[in-house]
Specification:
Number of strands: 0
Order of helices and strands: HHH
Shape: elongated
Number of helices: 3
């Protein structure tokens, strides 16, 4: 009987405390709490001015940040479109350049090695003809040599002859080959 009374007392204690926990939230929100200023009850004027300036700077920074975010959201789609256009243009230009280079390389190979798809010409001569008489001209032989053109001066200057200096000791030194150089 004592065990039953202990169990009944324990259960009733648990059931009685449950509404107390639920009511704690409603009682705390009834009274507003007064905050004291961050600079104290009796501050120095410079502390107050510094605190007010800090608050104004903080609110201005928040407003500037909001404005910048709005501006970025307006400009971002245009910038992304410009970037995509730039990538497309670069890709097209690179493809065109690669095709042009490939064509040039192919033409150069054909000029040097010949076209592998074309057959080489076979020259036939009769047996009585010499094969060296009717040789086809090579590329260098078929291109005419450039003619040198000498430009004539507009006025002709009188020409003077330069006389070599005479050496007075030509008879004494016969082995000297540079006798015309003055010493």
């Amino acid at each position: 009987m004592i065990n039953q009374s202990k169990a009944a007392l324990f259960v009733s204690a648990i059931l009685a405390t449950t509404p107390l926990f639920a009511q704690t939230e409603t009682t705390q929100t009834a009274q507003p709490v007064k905050q004291s200023p961050a600079y104290g009850d009796n501050p120095n004027i410079f502390k107050v001015l510094g605190h007010k300036a800090k608050e104004k700077i903080d609110t201005t920074a928040v407003k500037i940040d909001n404005g910048v975010q709005k501006g970025v959201s307006k400009v971002k789609p245009k910038a992304e479109q410009a970037w995509e256009n730039t990538k497309d243009f670069t890709e097209e230009t690179a493809d065109k350049a690669a095709n042009g280079i490939n064509r040039t390389v192919t033409k150069a190979k054909e000029g040097v090695f010949g076209n592998p798809e074309e057959k080489a010409p076979i020259v036939q001569h009769s047996l009585s003809q010499s094969s060296t008489d009717n040789q086809p001209k090579t590329f260098l032989e078929s291109v005419p040599a450039p003619q040198a053109q000498v430009a004539e001066p507009a006025t002709t200057a009188p020409q003077t002859e330069v006389q070599a200096p005479t050496n007075s000791n030509t008879g004494t030194n016969t082995a000297d080959t540079d006798s015309s150089i003055p010493r």
